[in-house]
């Protein structure tokens, strides 16, 4: 029996005036309780209890020790209760990192709804397109769009992320609709990246991966920039539907080469492995799964 358990056993003996009653209250044997008290007396070098055939009563030293014991045990129980509640009720600060475009368009409304539902929860949301390791940077959850590789992190899939090739009706009227991926090499294209030198798009043909060269009208490391250029009729672009789905639904952009789709990505919540997942993290991730799901709203066109 450890020291805290022995202190609790001693406190029960004093409160109930009996080894037997204390043992019954704690679900222990009488000998185990008696041994715990003797170990405390040996450790302290003082007699804590006066024992008689009828009743056990504390000595002067035992009474002083008892008052400290009940305070310590109560504080430990209160602390354990508070920690336990952190895993039952979402409260405290939840630190989240997410990509910029997705964070502004879709995560921000979700976060606003979550904090309205859980007033004891405070959220710190940082947006960045670089990968953030939640363990190294002290983040509770990292939301990422990717094809995941093996990782020491726990990953929960929130939703699929489809990508489509789109152009404006005006652009297609001027240049025509491409019939095959090879036609893209002769078309003004708007590519995600840092250089217009030899841009290539990864697509599929009959389920097999293909790599196709595309024309280079402009490039950007931000999908919103490419979307604006596409809406202005400046070229075709390959973008996720969470950016251009509403434009396709409204007819502002038109999908092309649908028979040659880009490999799907996934929207994931990444967090450090933990046997006891905090309620704040669990509630946040569950809310995103419910909000986005297997057929997210941006794919309904």
Automatic annotation (TrEMBL):
* InterPro entries (alphabetical): LysR-type_TF_proteobact-type (IPR058163), LysR_HTH_N (IPR000847), LysR_subst-bd (IPR005119), WH-like_DNA-bd_sf (IPR036388), WH_DNA-bd_sf (IPR036390)
The answer to whether keyword Transcription regulation applies is yes
The molecular function GO annotations come to: DNA-binding transcription factor activity; sequence-specific DNA binding
- Ranges for domain HTH lysR-type come to 1-59
Write down the SUPFAM superfamilies for this protein, in alphabetical order.
Answer: Periplasmic binding protein-like II, Winged helix' DNA-binding domain
**Which PROSITE patterns did the record assign?**
HTH_LYSR
GO terms in the biological process aspect are: DNA-templated transcription
Signal peptide feature range: none
Superkingdom of the source? Bacteria
Keyword set for this entry?
Answer: DNA-binding, Transcription, Transcription regulation
Protein's UniProt keywords contain Cell cycle: no
Q: Which family does it belong to?
A: Belongs to the LysR transcriptional regulatory family.
Stated name of the protein: LysR family transcriptional regulator
**In the record, what lineage is assigned to the organism producing the protein?**
Bacteria, Pseudomonadati, Pseudomonadota, Alphaproteobacteria, Hyphomicrobiales
């Amino acid at each position: 029996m450890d020291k805290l358990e022995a202190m609790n056993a001693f406190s029960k003996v004093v409160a109930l005036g009996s080894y037997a009653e204390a043992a019954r209250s704690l679900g222990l044997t009488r000998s185990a309780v008696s041994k715990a008290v003797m170990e405390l007396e040996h450790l302290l070098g003082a007699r804590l209890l006066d024992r008689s055939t009828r009743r056990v009563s504390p000595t002067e030293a035992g009474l002083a020790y008892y008052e400290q014991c009940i305070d310590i045990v109560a504080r430990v129980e209160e602390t354990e209760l508070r920690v336990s509640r952190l895993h039952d009720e979402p409260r405290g600060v939840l630190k989240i990192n997410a990509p910029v475009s997705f964070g502004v368009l879709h995560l921000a409304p979700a976060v606003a709804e979550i904090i309205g539902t859980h007033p004891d929860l405070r959220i710190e949301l940082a947006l960045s397109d670089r990968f953030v390791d939640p363990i190294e940077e002290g983040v509770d959850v990292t939301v990422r769009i990717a094809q995941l590789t093996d990782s020491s992190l726990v990953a929960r899939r929130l939703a699929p992320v489809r990508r489509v090739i789109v152009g404006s009706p005006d652009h297609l009227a001027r240049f025509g609709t491409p019939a095959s991926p090879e036609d893209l090499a002769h078309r003004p294209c708007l590519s995600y990246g840092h250089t217009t030198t030899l841009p290539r798009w990864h697509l599929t043909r009959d389920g097999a991966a293909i790599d196709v060269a595309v024309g280079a009208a402009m490039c950007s490391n931000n999908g919103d920039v490419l979307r604006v250029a596409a809406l202005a009729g400046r070229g075709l672009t390959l973008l996720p539907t969470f950016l251009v789905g509403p434009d396709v639904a409204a007819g502002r952009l038109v999908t092309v080469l649908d028979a040659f789709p880009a490999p799907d990505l996934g929207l994931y919540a990444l967090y450090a492995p933990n046997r006891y997942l905090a309620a704040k993290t669990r509630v946040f991730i569950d809310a995103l799964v419910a909000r986005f799901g297997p057929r997210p709203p941006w794919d309904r066109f």
